[in-house]
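Worked example 2:
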Amino acid sequence: MSVSKEEFKSALSRFASGVTVVTTKDRSGNLFGITVSAFCSVSLEPPMVLICIDKKTGSHHAFIETGAFVVNFLREDQSMLSQHFASPSSDKFLSVEHYVNVRGLPVLSNALAVLECRLVHSYDGGDHTIFVGEVEKTKVSEGNPLIYFRGKYCQIED
């Protein structure tokens, strides 16, 4: 017996996750960013992570073309950034504080942590592509993460 899309989504909503914005650029230099909850670590040696991107997303091609991406972990007060990068927009970086790294990829200035990655593998994952990146550079700062649980943003209680 198959699980329905609604049942699957309901079950997954019970898994609390951090919120990331993944950024990249395409061959023409256009910057892209998307809110991604499908993120996890893969390996310590070498340091590798994976992200899953919907094949229908307007930025999907850019991850393949550039072969690199940045994972920005959001802070507890950045739910508006999550919503901003989850919505369709022609220039998502126009009003967002960011800088461009050595590869020309956008990095969110006030992220809790940043992982700059080189794409090493991509796999078919149904309606998504699973991109595996080797982490080449990190940046971390103090603070608490933005958490997503049961369709809502949450904060850690100290």
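The first strand starts at residue 17 and ends at 18. The longest helix spans residues 5-12.
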